[in-house]
User: What shape does this take?
Amino acid sequence: MTAPSAADLALRLRRAAERSASGLRATLEAHGFADLPAGGWSLLCLVAEHGTIATGDAAAALGVSPAAVSQSASTLQKFGWLRERNGAHDARVRQLALGTRALEQAKALRALRVALDAAWREALGTHAQPLEQALLALDRALAKESLPARARRHA
Assistant: This one.
């Protein structure tokens, strides 16, 4: 059996991401969180884990830009899931904290986070470590040159 081509792997990765996103969306809706943007789930979980976290620290932890975190946080703030405040030691640093709605539903959110983490562990099984290494390599490569930039070179 021959190894899959890069194109085959990219297609599989896209399909897995789409399946994961639709599964997360369905799970959030089934648990009464229909208006919680699926893209904000990771940020909300991170803030719940830390209590408060600086926008830049959240970006580094999630592997995205501070602008992406700010945009996601703005959306979550509109629905009451997050709130933003000035940093305690530096007013220029924006701190994210759980909003009123997240605090009201903290127990349900925590239970859902635990259940989803267990589901991921079960689905990944023994493949978690090799997948993590491959994803880290992909992240590093895309940090050096973005996917759109790479596509332009090959167009």
Summary: The mean pLDDT is 86. Strands lie at 52-54, 82-86, 94-98.
